[in-house]
Specification:
alpha/beta; Rossmann fold; six-stranded parallel sheet; five-stranded parallel sheet
C-alpha cells in the first residue's frame, strides 16, 4: 500500500468532531489544523446558520449534523457569543462529548465558568484559568492556539536583528518600553506596527533572524471592558508569541505574567518586571552568545515536547477518554 493510501486509511479511522465557531476568523486555520490531527473535522459557522434560518434553528441544525455524521465530540469556539450559553449547550444531543474552547478566558472567565458546567472539558489558552476551572470541579486542558511545528520552526537563518518585537505597540505601555530601550542604545526592530495581521512565513523568517524576541504581557487599558476585574488598569496575560518563538529555537525575553511560572523556568524564559530590568537583561544576553544558545535550546525542547500541537492533542484525547470512563 502506498503512502497516500495509508494516510487516507488513517484518516478514515479518525473519530468525527464538529467545531462550532461564531464565524471563521483569520486564526481559525490554526485551530482546525490542530484538531485535524486527531479528528475528521466538520466546521459549522454559527452566524451563517443564524443569518439563513434564525437563532432558534441553530441547535436544531447542530443536532441534525450530529445525527448525520456520527460525531463523537462537539467543540464550541464561541468567545463573546453570549447566545451559546449553558442552556444552549445543554440542549445539544447528549450522545456527544461537549468541549468549550476559549482563547480569551482572562476577560470571559465568569461567563465561561457557568457555560462550562454543561461541558465535559474546557480548552483554554490561559494556564491560570485551567487551574481556576479545575478548582471549580471542571476538567480543563491548557490549549495554545499558534503552536504548529510545521509553521513555526528553526530556519537556520543568520542572526542579523538584535531585538525583535512583533505586534501592536499601542497596547498598555509597550511603546514606553521600546522608547526606553532605544534611548539606551538598543536596536529594537518592530514588525507589524502598521497592521494587525502578520504574514506567517515572513514572521517566522524575522524570528529566526533575531538574537532575541521581546514579549510584553500586559493587556490594553480596561476602562471600557465589561470584565470582573475592570477596576484594575491592566491584566497580565500569557501570550502565544512565546510558543511561536520557542518553536523557532530563538531566545524570548518576556515581561512577567503569573501564568508563565506554570509553563517555563527562568532558564527557558528569562523575565523582567520593569524597563530597567528589561534593559539589563537584554544587554547581558546580547553580549553572551553561549548563554543565548543555551536558552534557545532549552525553550525549544520544552515547547516542542509539551506545547506543540501533537502533545497538546494527545493530552486532549486522554482527558476526553478519562471523562468517558467516568461516565461509563
Amino acid at each position: 500500500m502506498d503512502l497516500e493510501l495509508i494516510e487516507l486509511d488513517n484518516l478514515s479511522k479518525k473519530p468525527v468532531c464538529i467545531l462550532l465557531e461564531k464565524s471563521p476568523r483569520r486564526w481559525s486555520e490554526h485551530l482546525r489544523r490542530k484538531l485535524s490531527l486527531s479528528y475528521k473535522l466538520i466546521c459549522v459557522d454559527a452566524y451563517a446558520i443564524i443569518h439563513h434560518s434564525g437563532y432558534r434553528m441553530l441547535s436544531d441544525e447542530l443536532n441534525r449534523i450530529i445525527d448525520d455524521s456520527s460525531a463523537t465530540v462537539v467543540l464550541f469556539s464561541v468567545d463573546y457569543f453570549y447566545g451559546i450559553d449553558v442552556e444552549f449547550i445543554s440542549g445539544i444531543n447528549q450522545s456527544v462529548q461537549k468541549v468549550l474552547v476559549t482563547f480569551d478566558d482572562l476577560s470571559l472567565h465568569s461567563f465561561n465558568s457557568i457555560t462550562a458546567t454543561s461541558c465535559d472539558l474546557v480548552l483554554t489558552a490561559d494556564p491560570l484559568s485551567r487551574l481556576k476551572y479545575i478548582e471549580k470541579g471542571i476538567d480543563a486542558v491548557y490549549f495554545p492556539l499558534e503552536s504548529s511545528k510545521t509553521i513555526y520552526r528553526d530556519l537556520k537563518r543568520d542572526k542579523k536583528i538584535e531585538v525583535l518585537f512583533f505586534g501592536n505597540t499601542k497596547l498598555a505601555d509597550r511603546q514606553y518600553y521600546i522608547d526606553y530601550l532605544r534611548k539606551r542604545g538598543l536596536k529594537i526592530n518592530v514588525y507589524g506596527e502598521e497592521t494587525s495581521y502578520l504574514d506567517e512565513s515572513e514572521l517566522v523568517q524575522k524570528i529566526c533572524e533575531s538574537h532575541i524576541v521581546l514579549n510584553f504581557s500586559k493587556t490594553g487599558h480596561l476602562e471600557n471592558e465589561q470584565v470582573q476585574e475592570s477596576h484594575h488598569r491592566y491584566l497580565w496575560q500569557v501570550k502565544g508569541r512565546i510558543i511561536e518563538v520557542g518553536l523557532c529555537r530563538t531566545v524570548c525575553v518576556s515581561e512577567y505574567a503569573p501564568g508563565l511560572e506554570l509553563l517555563y523556568s527562568d532558564a527557558e524564559l528569562p523575565t523582567f518586571r520593569t524597563p530597567e530590568e528589561c534593559h539589563i537583561l537584554l544587554n547581558y544576553l546580547l553580549s553572551h552568545d553561549k548563554k543565548r544558545e543555551e536558552i534557545a535550546n532549552s525553550i525549544y525542547r520544552r515547547t516542542l515536547t509539551e506545547y506543540e500541537d501533537y502533545p497538546i492533542m494527545s493530552i486532549v484525547g486522554k482527558a476526553l477518554s478519562n471523562q468517558r470512563d467516568k461516565q461509563n
